[in-house]
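Protein in question filed below.

…
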Amino acid sequence: MGRFSVEFAVANNRDVVGLPVGSPVLERVKHVLLSGVVDTGAARLVLPQHVVDELHLQIEGETTVRYADHRREKRPLVSNVWLQLLGRHGVFSAVVEPARSDALIGAIVLEELDLLIDPATQLLYPREPDSILTEIE
C-alpha cells in the first residue's frame, strides 16, 4: 500500500483528564506536534523517546518488537497517550523507540479513529465526516 506521513498532536492524557468538559485540549495542556508515518502493516503507535520524555509519559511495561529485518528487541511501552489526528482524538498505548525521530501510526489508531486510507492519493480521511462510526452485529 505504501507509507506516507501525516501531522498530528500528542499529549499526556493524565493532563487532559483534569480539564473541564469541552475545553480545547491543545490550548490548555502541553502537547507535541509531530510527523508520523502511516503504516497499515504496523499494529501499534510508536513514539520517539524525546516525545515520551517531553510529555512525561510513564513507562507501563515492555513489549517485544520485530523489525523488518526480523530482529527482535524489547522496548518500553507507555500508556495514556492522548492523540489528535484529523480532528479526532483517542487515548492509546505506544511503543517507545529511542533512536526514532518520527512516529509510526499503525492500524489500531486508524481503526479507533475510524480513518480510511485512499491509496491513490495517499491521504487519510474519515469514513463518516461528522462522527466515528461503530459497527455492531
Observations:
- The radius of gyration is 15 Å.
- Residues 30-126 form a domain with the Cathepsin D, subunit A; domain 1 fold (CATH 2.40.70.10).
